[in-house]
Amino acid sequence: MSSVKVAVRVRPFNSREISRESKCIIDMSGSTTAITNPKVPPGTSDSIKRFNFDYSYWSHNQPSDREFSTQSMVYTDIGEEMLQHSFDGYNVCIFAYGQTGAGKSYTMMGKQESEGQEGIIPMLCKDLFRRIKETASSELQYAVEVSYMEIYCERVRDLLNPKNKGNLKVREHPALGPYVEDLSKLAVTSYEDIHDLIDEGNKARTVAATNMNETSSRSHAVFTIFFTQRRHDKMTDLDSEKVSKISLVDLAGSERADSTGAKGTRLKEGANINKSLTTLGKVISALAEIVSIQIHICRHINSSEQ
User: Fold this and answer.
1) What is the pLDDT along the chain (306 residues), one digit of tens a residue?
2) Domain ranges, ordered by start, for the chain
């Protein structure tokens, strides 16, 4: 099993694209995504580029399309597996990355008030408490805490305590790693508690209209679930504790200033967004390089043993 999985999703045209009579240049078959370059003559070697991902979700047409990937299908493939890993005691992370207006917030958060359109975050939270209810006993107890923050123009804001307008500091713990100082961490006992907190946090999140997206997220939002499992062994009368962290991230969209019509504050926001996404890309590339080196070393050791 790979420790990192990548899924790509194509959304329907929005009203702006429909009015321009845009043409879809993306095609999906299984886990393969093909992109047609309209500037290259058809039939040439460079006219179509194909990429393989762990999942390719075709959500371009209407739900009546037999190949249409729904919100629940995306969660079943991605969210359920991550939730199982958290029950196994691992830290997990799901983040949505892409251009502004690509549908990241819809995939991660969805429309909570519309049945069947909930995103990964509310569906995972609902599934979490369903499993807790089914498995909790006198020997196994659970505790759930959540935090919700946004990173806006390189400043960290607490979305569950929006009255705190200060810039929260990011610290490094010698054992637990990076953390945000003074970030609210609230205990929850049901999905309804989480639903209310998510709704409260979303209202405090920074959004603005651009030419590319009427409700563009101008910040990176990180919703974190701290999940603790406490087990009591009757044989030894000892208690054990297993803690995992589930990070669910809705990144702000990358953008070009000429496409979004960004000026003034919007332009400054876009510059900070692109800067942080570029840094994230460098981190991912460095991690991928480390993994490839480790694989090469393992293969070399195996060949030496033979």
Assistant:
1) 457 888 999 999 988 888 999 999 999 988 999 999 988 888 888 889 999 999 999 999 877 777 899 999 999 999 999 999 999 999 999 988 888 888 898 999 998 777 778 999 999 999 999 999 999 998 999 999 999 998 887 788 899 987 777 688 889 888 878 888 989 999 999 999 999 999 888 888 765 444 444 445 668 889 999 999 999 888 888 899 999 999 999 888 765 545 545 455 656 666 667 677 777 778 777 776 765 565 556 555 555 554
2) 1-69, 93-305
- Write the class of the CATH domain 93-305: alpha beta
Write down the catalytic residue from 119, 201, 253, 270: 253
Q: Which residue has the tokens 């909930």?
A: 118
Marked catalytic residue, from 69, 86, 105, 276: 105
CA separation for the pair 246, 248 (Å, rounded) = 6
Q: Determine whether 184 is an active site residue.
A: no
Of the residues 103, 110, 119, 270, which is catalytic?
103
Pick from 242, 223, 73, 211: which is nearest to 141 by CA?
Answer: 242
